[in-house]
Structure formats: C-alpha cells, structure tokens
Amino acid sequence: MIHKIETAKNLIAFRALGQVTTADFKSVVLPELEGLSKESNEINFLFALDTDVQNFTENVWFKDAVLGLQQFENWNRVAIVSDSDEMNFNGGFTFNTTGELRGFKKLAFNKALKWVEGDSIL
Fold it and tell me: 2-117 maps to which CATH number?
C-alpha cells in the first residue's frame, strides 16, 4: 500500500509499505501528481520505500509507475528513499530528462525531504 506523507505545499511525498500494486499507485500517487502539476510550474516529489525490495522491483507496478511518471513534464526534484542496494537511483536510472533525481538511504530521510523542499543543494 502507498500512504501520502503530509509535507510542505511545494511538494508531495509518499511511503510504500508491504505489497504495492499498480492500483495503489494509480489511485494514490497519480491523482496527487496531476493536482500538483496543474497548480505548480514544478513538481517536487519524494517516494520512500519502506518495504522489501521484492515487493516493488519484481512486480509490474514499478514499471507501470515509471510509465505513469513519464506523462509529467514539469519535474524539479525527485528523491527516492530506500535502503536497498538493488535500487541505485544515482546512476543511470531516469524516467525523463527534466529535473534532478537523487537516491537517499532511510536514515537520510530528513535530508531527502529538505533537498526536495529546496532547502538544501547537497
């Protein structure tokens, strides 16, 4: 399942827990992204993966998620928070050409949040 994390107004953030499905992503994340995309010139996005790597990398939802994210053009900062060594978002992984994408470990969640908010340049 995916839960929205309450954050500053200039970004949206989510936490994935347990099994995550395409329906979770489409019903929770995409509507929020669509709303922010209409309200703002830029999307700042944080996605925290608090689930075993098998619950998101081997399932179809992750590919669907990346495809769903490609429809948005006004990305600014995207932070992916995960302790998985298999999820290396700092090198080679991309879903579009705009904005910055950074990976953070779970212990650096607050650092990731500050970076997405624009309070840190890293």
Answer: 3.40.50
